[in-house]
Amino acid sequence: MIRVVVVDDQELMRVGFRMVLGAQADIDVVGEAGDGAQAIRLAEELRPDVVLMDVRMPVLDGVEATKRIVEAGTARVLVMTTFDLDEYVYSALQGGASGFLLKDTQPDHLVSALRAVASGDAVVSPSVTRRLLDRFVGGGGKPLRDAAELDVLTEREREVLVLIAKGLSNLEIAETLFLSEATVKTHVGRILSKLDLRDRVQAVVLAYETGLARPGVT
């Protein structure tokens, strides 16, 4: 079972998420919180697999709550937001969130995303992530981090990282580079290990921050 804590300051939203997720045989909503401080306490107490986290909440917002939960290692965090261009979401990604979705995401997409995060993967929406980074990583401005960080990668690994940043799945990367999916998985694993990254979301952020990938460039 995938154990989930739902965090949103609107009770109606929590009820909706509970109905969608609770209908799945492999998902158990073990708790609900209305603010970030309560979310931290529940994550510590219940040790869920995933916290479904709202961003804008009273007492403590979802960004700070995400950082503290991830730092404590109590759960993985999937951020939900009403706005696809929200600086809070970018901060949440930097703070360790395993991805983000819009609140109008279709129920089946929410369920599949939550399962992906619970399994250790990350949710990287190609269009939403690219627009977010376009606005908050600089849109062609000076890179935020030293590209020398990427010197540990081989040329092939750099190619794979660029495609990860574009939001491609392992299968899509394999088809693009004429590799087997297993080989791509190996490359992805080495990239994350060499760069000391937790998941694909952190890889996407790093690719843009170092200038390896550029918003709007296909």
TrEMBL record:
InterPro entries: CheY-like_superfamily (IPR011006), NreC/VraR/RcsB-like_REC (IPR058245), Sig_transdc_resp-reg_C-effctor (IPR016032), Sig_transdc_resp-reg_receiver (IPR001789), Tscrpt_reg_LuxR_C (IPR000792), WalR-like (IPR039420)
GO terms of molecular function: DNA binding
Protein name: LuxR family transcriptional regulator
Pfam hit, one: Response_reg
SUPFAM superfamilies linked to this entry: C-terminal effector domain of the bipartite response regulators, CheY-like
Modified residues (4-aspartylphosphate): D54
Domain of life: Bacteria
Source organism: Amycolatopsis lurida NRRL 2430
Gene3D superfamilies per the UniProt record, alphabetical: 3.40.50.2300
Sequence ranges assigned to domain HTH luxR-type in this UniProt record: 146-211
Listed GO biological process terms: phosphorelay signal transduction system; regulation of DNA-templated transcription
Domain Response regulatory: from-to ranges: 3-118
Keywords: DNA-binding, Phosphoprotein, Transcription, Transcription regulation
